[in-house]
Amino acid sequence: MRVAVMTDSTAYIPAHLRQQWNIEMLPLNVFIDDVSYQEEVDLQADQFYPLVRQAKELPKTSQPSIGYITETLEKLAVDYDAVVSIHLSSGISGTHQSVITAGNMVEGIDVYAFDSEISCMAQGFYALEAAQMAHDGKDAETIMNRLNEMKQSMRAYFMVDDLSHLHRGGRLNGAQALLGSMLQVKPLLHFVDTKIVPFEKIRTQKKAIKRILSLFDEDAATGKPVKAVVIHANRPEDAKMLKNDIEKQYANVEISISYFGAVIGTHLGEGSLGLAWYLK
Predict the structure, then answer these.
(1) Burial environment of residue 168 by CB neighbours within 10 A (0 to 12, 13 to 18, 19 or more)
(2) pLDDT digits (tens, 9 = 90+) for 268-277
C-alpha cells in the first residue's frame, strides 16, 4: 500500500520540510479588504501582519472548497492507494469534514481523515510523524493508530495580546472583552473538545509566560523525551528567548520555533505567543 500524507496550511510546516517528506498541503483562504489569498501559497505570515495593520476591517477566513479538495485527491489517487489527511480542529473549521465528504466522492484512493483537535505546528507534528511512517512503508491504519497515541500527550497553551480579535471572532462577549482590556488581562487559551476556550485569566504577560512554563514542566520534568515548539505571532525575539530558556533547563526536550500564520493569526491577533508539546 502506498500511503500519501496531506495536511492543510494551518499546520505551518516550512516548505522545505513539506517537500522533503512529500506532504501535500491544502491552503485555507484569507480575505483582506475583499482581496483573496491562499495562506502559505501567496500570503506568508511575515506579509500578513503588516497588511492587517493597514486593513479597514478584520480579515475573514474560509476552508478549501470541496472542488479543490476533490481535485487534489484525484491527483494523489494516480500514485497512491490511501491518504492520511491531518487537519485543524473540527471545532474551528469545516476542513476536516470537507475532506471526508470529498473522500467519498473520489474513487481509487482510501481517505483516512484525522482531526488533530488542535492547530499550528502541533498539527504539524502529526503530519511530520505520519510522513516519516509512510516513508518507512507503514500502512494507513498503523499511522492513524500512532497519531491517536500521540494525541494522548499533546498539549498547547496560547496567550493572546489583544482581546478584540477573540471578541470579534465570537470567543468573548463585549463586556468581557472591554473589562479584560481595561484590566490588561492576558488570557491563556487551550483546546478542549475541539474548541478554543479560556484556560486561565492572567494579569500580565510575564505571569502568563511563567504559567505556560509551569504547565510544560509537569511533562518535561519527568525526564521523558519531549518534542516542543514555541509559536508566535510576529514576536520572534520573545520566541527565541523562550526557546533558549527551555533548552537550558531541559536536556530531554527537542524544541523548535514556529508561527501563527494568517488564518490562525486572524483569530488570535498579532502578539500572541504559545507553546505546544507532546511526549515522544
Answers:
(1) middle
(2) 889 999 999 9
